[in-house]
Design brief:
- The structure is a single chain.
- By secondary structure, the protein is of the alpha/beta class.
- α1 (14-31) packs parallel to α2 (62-71) and α10 (305-318) packs parallel to α11.
- The chain is built from 13 helices and 19 strands.
- The protein is globular and about 60 Å long.
- It has helices at 14-31, 62-71, 83-89, 94-99, 118-126, 150-163, 192-205, 216-221, 248-255, 305-318, 350-357, 369-375, 391-399, and strands at 4-8, 47-51, 77-81, 104-105, 135-141, 166-172, 210-215, 226-228, 234-236, 243-246, 260-262, 266-270, 282-287, 292-296, 323-327, 363-368, 386-389, 403-405, 409-414.
- It has a domain at 272-415: Hypothetical Protein Ychn, Chain: A (3-Layer(aba) Sandwich), CATH 3.40.1260.
- The strands form four sheets. A ten-stranded mixed sheet has the order 4-3-2-1-12-19-14-15-16-17. It has a five-stranded parallel sheet with strand order 10-7-6-5-11, sandwiched between helices. Strands 8-9 form a two-stranded antiparallel sheet.
- The two termini are 23 Å apart.
């Protein structure tokens, strides 16, 4: 696995690029100033940003391009673009590539079909062991198919992972459970269920494992029926055969393993060896499990995203995984103002949820002060369990090794 890398596929607002920029400054200037020296062309970059989908528009939008220019001033940063998606959108990045030769890459390796494969480049970077040693790659799917391109991105990534001799695992959560529904027959898009079946057959054919598991609570809420065969097996009659509906804890069991897990917007950050610079949080017990950092960037209530993100965090922490939840960008609206729901209402109150789970082992909540300042609002005073952090605090969470954690990397998931 590369030192640090992010996959970005959703629209990238200026605000997001700005905190990425500040975190990179924290890394290069505060922690490793020696890396600011001229890097030889043959040396591996310290940070790689893989851009596909709508994230590619940030490379030609004047506001975001201005921030990318600052980020690319660090010679140890590179951007890898999805060539096929650039062509589809008619986006030209020739001037940017010429300005930063070797840092902005718009060509991809050849896939099994002979076409350029951005996902093969990503799978190679996500691999934690040198080939041909076995390994695993995982994908967390939270969005429904067809309305969102991320379902096909997940299949493309896992297909490339199998080509790299990595077993493939798919975790369906929230609306992501729809990707395994039986009887999908789109006329104007790739058939996602057939893609999953092909993944299963491809893995079986080369002696690798394939796992597709959906969150039982999310599936039940959406009307997916299951029954127990009397021998402990949970059977669903409305999903394709490779797709299994299970309790969320069984999905989190897979997070206990050290492989890379990506999503439509996610990252894997290498944990440096312990030194005098130690993070201000820690796991309750010594663990080799990669920590999970969940960035909540959306408003609460309009969708299930915020509640789902917090629920996933609680499940990870309950399993013994050091889990950080950071409210930033529009996510800070979850922790501002005094939220009140009608007594007996089915609408959840996210602040009540936070107060209920706060204090659980391995679970830490943070709110990003610059996001409040940008909007001219403040954090709700009663949320004492949510700690305010600025750019240095965010940098420490990303780059300082937390106490009691002996993992090689941490997972960053953007909700």
């Amino acid at each position: 696995m590369n030192a640090h890398f992010f996959l970005l596929s959703s629209p990238v607002p200026v605000e997001r690029l700005s905190w990425i920029e500040e975190c990179l400054k924290f890394f290069f200037i505060q922690l490793y100033p020696e890396t600011l020296m001229h890097r030889k062309a043959a040396e591996s970059p310290l940070f790689s940003f893989f851009l596909t989908g709508d994230a590619l528009y940030s490379l030609e939008d004047p506001e975001t391009l201005q921030v990318w220019n600052i980020i690319l001033s660090f010679t140890s940063v590179r951007i890898i673009c999805d060539r096929q998606e650039l062509n589809l959108r008619g986006i030209g990045i020739g001037p940017l590539r010429m300005k930063y030769p070797g840092q902005v890459i718009d060509t991809n390796s050849s896939g099994a079909d002979g076409n350029p494969s951005f996902w093969k480049d990503l799978a190679k970077t996500a691999r934690q062991s040198k080939p041909p040693l076995p390994g695993t790659a995982g994908w967390l799917q939270t969005r429904s198919p067809y309305m969102h391109r991320s379902a096909w991105h997940g299949i493309s990534f896992l297909t490339a992972a199998l080509e790299e001799r990595l077993s493939a695992e798919l975790y369906a959560y929230l609306d992501g459970v729809h990707i395994g529904h039986l009887g999908q027959h789109p006329t104007d898009a790739e058939n996602i269920s057939e893609g999953l079946i092909a993944l299963h057959e491809q893995a079986t054919g080369v002696g690798l494992d394939f796992l597709a598991i959906a969150c039982g609570r999310c599936a039940t809420a959406r009307g997916y029926s299951t029954w127990d065969d009397g021998q402990g097996a949970v059977i669903s009659t409305c999903t394709i055969k490779p797709f299994k509906i299970r309790d969320l804890s069984q999905m989190i069991d897979r997070f206990m393993h050290p492989h890379t897990i990506l999503a439509s917007d996610a990252g894997a950050l290498r944990l440096m060896k312990p030194s005098a610079a130690i993070s201000f949080d820690r796991a309750e017990n010594t663990s080799k499990v990669p920590p999970v950092t969940i960035l909540i960037t959306k408003h609460p209530y309009s969708t299930e995203i915020v509640f789902g993100a917090v629920s996933l965090a609680v499940a990870c922490a309950h399993a013994g995984i050091l889990t950080r939840v950071i409210f930033l960008e529009d996510g800070i609206y979850s922790v501002t103002g005094n939220h009140r729901a009608l007594p007996g209402s089915a609408v959840y109150n996210i602040q009540d949820v936070i107060n209920t789970v706060a204090g659980k082992e391995n679970l830490h909540f943070f709110a990003f002060s610059p996001s409040f300042q940008k909007r001219g609002i403040t954090k709700e005073k009663s949320l004492n369990a949510v700690l305010d952090i600025g750019y240095p605090g965010l940098g420490k969470i990303f780059f300082y090794p937390p106490r009691n954690v002996l993992a090689e990397h941490q997972r960053v998931l953007v909700f």
